[in-house]
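debug: dumping io for the single-chain case to check the tokenizer round-trip. Nothing else runs in this session.
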Amino acid sequence: MNITRRAAIAGALLPFAAWAQAPEWPSRPVRFIVPYPPGGPTDIMGRIVAQAVHGPLGQPFVVENRAGANGLIGSEQAARAPADGSTFLVNASAHVIVPHLTPNMPIDVLADFAPVTNIASVPLWLVVNPALPVRSVAEFIAYARANPGRIAYASSSQGGAPHLAGELFKLMTGTDLVHVPYRGSGPAGQDLIAGTVQAMFDSVPASAGAVRDGRLRALGVTTKSRIAPFPDLPTIAEAGVPGYEISTWYGIWAPARTPPAIIARLQQAVATAARNPETRARFDALGAEPVADSPEDYARFVRAEYDRWGKLVRDARIKLD
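debug: decoded output
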């Protein structure tokens, strides 16, 4: 057998060797660190996955909320945890946004973590208080241009996808909207309904009830395609802002140097759970589209998102207050 063929066979066997050499996992309960308070979308997503993989993997997965500093407190704890499969981070797309807004980062979100899988993607939409005299994205843009600095848009936090959805909208439409950050989608939505603020880029599940009962008016979704629960609602791109596209997504990371076999096993458990009808129904209730991609595909996606959000932060000159 020549050297080239021997090397090829050896390379093909490496994944199997890694599985054989990896310790039995999990042999004890596993932590999912969520770097935000309980009850938010990242926490909910983490708990859905924790419950779904518990049975197949044979050990409890416990969600621990470690909130603070725009997610950095919990993220740093996860990055510094032992790389033995005992701890993982569940975070949203803010994981690759906050670094571009934070000087003196305590961690490197690319180097200090090993991507496991993208759990799911959730669409956002532009919603307004019905008192605002607009019924379409085009009318909203025209009104905003005629009233610069007089429309306040809320977001669930600084540095998250809803915040940057508004900044991207401003950049692409040349409008002057005033950002008002809140601590969570709930308080922001309440003030929008009350008329304290006039608009919001929100996750569809968070405000769908208010749209259905007329307390809010939806103008367009931020994703590339229309969404099944509201098929008549246009995308913002087709309604007047060509090329506009944004969504929030949720994923799992392991501390760097976690054995690839452990990462692969968790990813496969998440992918299996995503096909389970009960878990899929829970995703559907959130308006979430399961992804459950491979660690390699997820790593490429994370890098691309990191670069994409960084460009937006620079182009829009976004800074945290």
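debug: round-trip ok. Confidence is low (pLDDT under 50) at residues 1-22.
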